[in-house]
Amino acid sequence: MKYIVMFVLLFVPMAANDIDNILMDMEVNNDLSTKTKKENNGIVKVYTRSDLNMMNAMHLRDVLKSSVVGFKISRYGLMDPNTLGISPFSSSNIRIYIDNQEISSTLYGSGMVTGDMNLDFVDHIEIYTYNPSFEFSTEPATIMIKLYTKTYERDPGTTLRAGYGSYGSNVFSATTTNQIGDYKYMIHVSKDVDNKEKSNFGGVHDVSRDTTKTHGLISLYNDKRKFLLSVVENKKDSFLSADWTGDPSQAHIDINMFHVGYEEKFSDNILFELTYDTLKDQSVFANDNILFMHKRNNSWNPIQSFDVKDESTVITTKLQKKSTLGNHDLLYGLKYRWKDLDYTELTFNNAVHLPYTGVKK
Fold first, then answer.
1. Residue 3: pLDDT band with limits 50, 70, 90
2. Local confidence band at 354 (pLDDT 50, 70, 90 cut-offs)
């Protein structure tokens, strides 16, 4: 009996090690990033779904905190890793992709407007630095964040998440995958209410960074075609905004972002892509005394309230082909991007200043 016990004690760790090795091999072989990751396109860091679960990463900001990108909130309450002074947004060099389609806007680039999105629809994330952006992005980029959606082949069924936190914060998300004929689809909806403790910098008013974000995403695909639809509504208290006194009486930003994209592979080497992005936002800032100084008609005027509405559109199309010549890989094709920006409402001190004559396109 003594020998049997010794045998069992020795056998269990060996068996456990074998099982761990098998599971690790299965995870590596089933990791979708082995198909999407491009090792020769800069330095890449991959976060698999298993990694995201172990990190308890519910939002993209949870990943960026431990990445080379970093995590900073601007004085406007926007996630802006390169935030600088009073500039509304300084991180347009960071590009965000969902299933290889860039989420873009005229004002915010790929907008870290989407930077705090819910990650329950994500299979894995790839963060590229020092990449040759000509292969991926239409405009220069030093950092690319590529999110890949869950697929029916890997995650069939439906997942739900609900939670409640301090200051009334709460989250709900639902993600489902299924198949219709030879098309598979993924549908994701989420609503995140992220409330934080109010701050006061010795003024009359408290400043807030509360945010409510709603996101809907649909991915429809087969072996040759992919259709992607993303709709984001983001309502946020914009903290200090453009106020230098630390005591704004109003500071609020409403953002509505819409993305639709179509991709088709005519062969293994020829790819066509067309995307359409539009963003509408309204910024309302005010101070009881003075918000900032504004130069108009060669004179400086004190501004107490500022209300602006704008709309921007980005259309991008791409046709590319890959081939080989001896031991060399060739990539060639065409990319075109059209941008438009228009201020539909511009109000200083409750006085309308339109038409706007600045740069629109």
1. very low
2. low
Rg over CA atoms, the chain: 24
The amino acid sitting at 318 is K
Contact 224, 239 (CB under 8 A): no
Q: What are 137's two structure tokens?
A: 């992005």
> What is the rounded distance in angstroms from the CA atom of residue 146 to the CA atom of residue 163?
26
Find out whether 174 and 158 touch, Cβ atoms under 8 Å.
yes
Span 146-163, pLDDT tens digits: 999 999 999 999 999 999
pLDDT at 93: 81
CB-count burial class (<10 Å; 0-12, 13-18, 19+) for 30: exposed
Across 181-186, average pLDDT:
96
d(CA 279, CA 158): 30
What gap in Å lies between CA 98 and CA 273, rounded to an integer? 13
Place of tokens 């976060």: 47
Q: Is 266 exposed, middle or buried (0-12, 13-18, 19+ CB in 10 A)?
A: exposed
Reported pTM: 0.84
In the chain, the DSSP E strands lie at 43-48, 94-98, 101-102, 122-129, 143-149, 157-164, 170-180, 183-194, 211-221, 225-237, 250-265, 270-286, 292-296, 299-303, 305-325, 328-348, 351-352
Q: How confident is the model at residue 73 (pLDDT cuts 50, 70, 90)?
A: confident
CB-CB contact of 146 with 33 (8 Å):
no
